[in-house]
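It is time I had a proper look at our fold encoding. Can you supply me with one protein entry, sequence and fold together? It will help me judge whether the discrete encoding reads sensibly. Leave the record below and I will have a look:
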Amino acid sequence: MSGLPGTRGRRRVYLMRHGEVSYVRPDGSTVFSDVSLTPEGEQQALHMAGMLASVPFDLAVHTGKTRTRQTAETVLQGRGVALMQITELEELRGGSLEGISPERIEAEFVYGMERAVLPGAGFPGGETFADFERRVVPAFEALLRRPGWATALVVAHGGTNAMLLSWVTRGGLAGMGAFEQDAGCVNIIDADVIDGEIVRRLVRAINVTPYNHAKLENYLTVTERIARERLARLDR
């Protein structure tokens, strides 16, 4: 298999963000570890399954986190597509809102990606964005070079996807903050791989949500929603 029909070595990746989850516990604390899809998230994955029903996937990837595996399994239900795990595509590791004062949540968390290019920048207590880039990008490039496929589903996370979209557009760390990733969205990326070398990168679609194509009443970013939910619980 050399690539998509009519091309020489072109691969296509449907890069999803997992469906909706809740990072805030009933006691108001925030957790970013291994959480499961909410009923809304399950419905978002079902919507995506319908949208991608005719796409001939050769392989599929999740990050090992429950939310990405559940999303991938729902999208692929009834298909005999091999599902593999690439842990290097996990979300930016570590960090918490627990040690951040309410006054600093917006600056440190909501606008965290805007500072990604600064030396040592990262979410408080977590992996730096530079280390994140060094982990995620080589893993994705290795997937693109992997022989024997033309079309893949990759279910990852908001930060991971922003990093990869910035890599595709050659924006690097400075470009991460421009790519919002709504729950259960998909991006479509093409890459020409000739003799093991990635010679071209193309963006076909970004942040497509089949359950709300027009983004109607979707005005907040994911980090803004998490921060507001956290602050609301602190005020109780």
The CA atoms of residues 99 and 147 lie 45 Å apart.
